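your task:
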Amino acid sequence: MNRLRNISLLATILFTMTCTACKDDGNMPEKEQEITDEISPEISCPEDIMLSIGALDEEPTVDYNTPVGTDNNEGAITKQTAGLASGEIFPEGTTTNTFVVTDASGNTSSCSFDVTVTREATDDVTKPYVYGNIAPEGKKWVLVENLSDEFDGPELDGSKWHNDPATDPFGWYGRPPALFDPENVAVADGNLRVTVLEYDQPKTAKGKSWTHGGAILRSREKAVPGQFYECRMQANATVMSSTFWIAFTQNCNNGPKRKLELDIQECVGRVHEGTHSWAQKWDATYHSNTWRHARSCDVAESESAPKKKDLEEKNHSRFFVYGCWWKSPTEILFYLDGEYVYTITPPTDFDLEGHITMAIETYDWNPIDENNILKTGSEDKRTTKYDWVRTWKLVDE
């Protein structure tokens, strides 16, 4: 009897548990079905933005309405994946700005728009090629005509430039094997052109034999502290140099006894396996330096304070604008394509007068190799071009 009662109780419990999981109508529930979101979020970008700035204006700050995506469900996230954010400084050229929205299910949508900044060209230059105004308050820049040249004439202006080492104040004929040869200098197509080459027959000068030709030019007027010096130059594509600098005379008897050198830009057109390790980037560099050279009546060892910026482009790939504000004897600022790059504090006071110099020469640390184009290359590849040289001084407004 007790056994029958226990079986009945167990059956009642099982029936109760089963019905607890039943619907009201006694049927079992269907399995829940998952809901899949196949609808992509939406996002829209502003129209393309076109800006034009002056030839020497600073690059602009650009504000725009930042895109934010929407979705039929909560949880969508918008991120910028390319370009620059609103309120940042946009460079010259085209910047593509891309935004991507992702919803909670992983669906994505994107949009893009361009910000294009163009710089106006102008021949009406009234200050150094520097973005913004760097003149001190109450001052303005004035062109120094005797130390400036647009090279628009039919020939070199001999009233402004020496191009023969036999008659300039230095009498330096070059570093062998390349002779500073005035025959390699020309003015054409609005440029000063120095074409380097390998001679068919060596030339003799200053008691030496020279197998290759370069050139050197120096200003007749003297450069002084406080002024701004700049040039627009495209380097040649050979192992030889392209330079823009200020050279200083020196004399142990008559003075000045210090031998100074202010290098604004010094580069080469090509490097190779034989180039010294420290110069492997000298074909894509902005390299400046200040020197106090060793002399018997001055310092026993040379002193220098160099600085450089590696470039993404080769120096011979296009024209670059190299600038230097010799602000004071102890502070010299350097600019590239209108932008400030660095300041050099020289190893001694640069308080002497010098000569603007453009020298195209050979170096023993970047020697002429078997694959050079000095004999076989086109004239264009072998030519350093100067579009202009300009010097500015500050005067009261």
